[in-house]
Design brief:
The chain is mainly alpha-helical and about 160 residues long. The chain contains 6 helices and no strands.
Length: about 160
């Protein structure tokens, strides 16, 4: 359960990620947009697994679905699946180097992207499969910077023990 002090940091960072996800970009830059919500969620689940988990993933997934005008629940499904995987493996992922974590994040983002692709396929949309891998690569490349930034925010507000 998210405590008040924790919510004062987690919710604003997730809201910023949500805003970055719906920020208008030029047509050529659309396919390079990382999945900001998933990246920030992965960090918070990994950093505070006792407070941020599947429920937060579901809520922000539904908000992302509404904000992007997509099928209700498709992003929520993807975020719940990756948050569950991180919850099951967070103690292992924490001890990895940032490069190893970026590789894990790439595969987590890829799982989410493939779930969204699968839901789109079920409803009859057939997007370019190649464009689904690029946001995962960009997200993995941004992971070290995002990890260090969010860790500094978490430490500034002394939310949990340092690891």
């Amino acid at each position: 359960m998210i405590t008040t002090r924790c919510a004062q940091v987690v919710i604003p960072t997730m809201a910023v990620a949500l805003m970055l996800s719906i920020l208008p970009l030029p047509e050529w830059a659309q396919m390079f947009r990382p999945d900001w919500v998933a990246l920030v969620l992965i960090y918070w689940v990994m950093a505070m697994p006792e407070r941020v988990g599947v429920t937060v993933a579901w809520v922000f997934g539904l908000l992302l679905d509404v904000a992007q005008g997509s099928i209700l629940g498709q992003h929520a499904l993807g975020l719940v699946v990756i948050s569950y995987i991180v919850l099951m493996q967070y103690s292992r992922i924490r001890v990895f180097s940032l490069l190893q974590q970026a590789i894990v994040v790439f595969f987590l983002l890829l799982i989410k992207q493939l779930l969204v692709l699968w839901v789109n396929g079920i409803i009859g949309l057939s997007p370019s499969i190649g464009s689904y891998f690029i946001p995962s690569l960009v997200g993995a490349a941004l992971w070290p910077w995002l990890f260090l930034s969010l860790r500094n925010i978490r430490r500034k507000f002394t939310l949990t023990k340092h690891y």
